[in-house]
Amino acid sequence: MKEESSDLMIVGAGPAGLSAAIYARRQGLVTTVFGDMPGGNLYMIQKVSNYPGFKDGVPGMQLGSFIFSQAQSEGANLTMTNVERLEKNGSSFIVVDTNGARHSSPAAIIATGGKPKRLAVENSNLEGIHTCAMCDGPLYRGKEATLAVVGSGDRGGHLCLLLSIIGRKIILLDTNAALEMNAALQSAVAELDNVEILLGTEILAFTGENDIDGVQVSTGGGPPKKIAVDAVFLAAGWKPNTAMISFPLKTTPQGYIITDEKLMTSCPGLYAVGDVRDSDVKQILTSCADGARAAVYATEWLRGQNS
Ligand SMILES: Cc1cc2nc3c(=O)[nH]c(=O)nc-3n(C[C@H](O)[C@H](O)[C@H](O)COP(=O)(O)OP(=O)(O)OC[C@H]3O[C@@H](n4cnc5c(N)ncnc54)[C@H](O)[C@@H]3O)c2cc1C
Fold this sequence. Notes:
binds flavin-adenine dinucleotide; 5-stranded parallel beta sheet; 27% strand; alpha/beta; 6 helices
């Protein structure tokens, strides 16, 4: 099969990858983007209220499609396929996509974000344990369901807001003694009259045959007790998506890719942006900024290689 070549390949079509594509095209680079989910994790967000330019907020899905169509109209090649493997061959990066096609470029950007961690407890693969409320929450609409949310950070707060209009009762569980979500989310969750918060609560196991029917917990180190639930939504930890990279890179112990101040990884010509990168603020705006900067730095780097 013929190998397609570009100046720059971008793995991941979330806000970071698509912003990189917009900037790379405006720098004149032939740019190929991989990822079958236009807008990346934005589809999980009911309403984005902190992205500049939208004073009344904007649905995450809509913002994602705006950024996607901007990258498209700038002329980026948006493949809508995922990457099976990213390899290094001499001075080229090689992508093998999920259709088995090969693509190459002298520079590349990893913008693959992350995904929620599953809990290492008994029965963690039962039906009814979900990671995306936007995708799977509607399954419980009109069912008078009791839904547990695991994790009290910002993601857990967003899940409560979304699920509170679907479920009869939402139970927010966290081992921490205090909520970890930001103050605005705390106030929004506090206004919901169908959300019960159980802090200092450890999940010991999920119960059920094929479908989940409960969560076994211990609060404050007390005796195990079972809480009956119809479904669980996980927001307890995040894992960067790096499994497709087939050569070693410098990462944190949690697997986030370490970059220099110009967002280059430990492999020359390879950049990392957005949530997959070791950074302190993981948001849409910071991901877009990473993408823009990496595209400019990659262009400089490519020019340096060719001069
Ligand atoms: C529930 C929730 C609510 C949030 N609310 C807000 C908010 O209100 N405001 C805010 O600023 N931020 C919010 N965030 C955070 C924000 O969504 C992220 O910071 C942002 O999406 C990160 O962008 P990214 O492009 O780095 O990664 P992502 O958006 O994760 O996009 C990466 C894409 O790469 C894809 N990918 C992974 N592996 C491959 C592969 N092998 N080949 C091709 N593609 C691949 C992924 O599937 C994904 O589609 C929220 C996140 C969640 C989960």
